[in-house]
Model the fold of this input.
Amino acid sequence: MIMENKLKDVSLNGRMAYTIMCVEAFLVSRYPDRDWTIISREMWKATNEYWDVFYDAFCELLPEIFLNYDSYNADLEKSISEEEFKSIKQLYDGITTGSEDDPEDEVNFMLNKPYEMAMVYEGTVIGDGQESFDIIENTEKILSKYNIKLPDYTKVLFSSSSEKNGWGNNFDGRNLSIILNK
Done:
């Protein structure tokens, strides 16, 4: 629970950014041969738009949802192209079955964390924000399991919990991305 103390004055938007940084660290470390750009680009939208808009689009890319599509169809046209569909199918091939709420399916588990953060808080009062720390702790446990260095939390300290009742101002989080900035 050390990160809870370090991020206690960081906005929820900043905590979301840190969560995404953890997810990216996992993806890049465990599957460095795969191009995670499309997933990363969608995750980082969370720091710059309303979370209900973010989670609506992002959930379609979660393995537990995405892998239910056998082929490209009209339901997906609003969020991704047919080429992106094929790329994501290849991206997930052999590394996730989309097992919902299964920590053994680590790709699905980790990609769910930004979505979970948005679902827990969207349309609510933040309160003490404990749920966000629980989500962060779960991402850090997976990183620790593989001795993956935790992201530099100081990069999100600029996003103060004093902004917008704890939500924090929107910002372009893509500059924090290790996938989009390589």
Notes: DSSP finds nine helices and no strands in the chain.
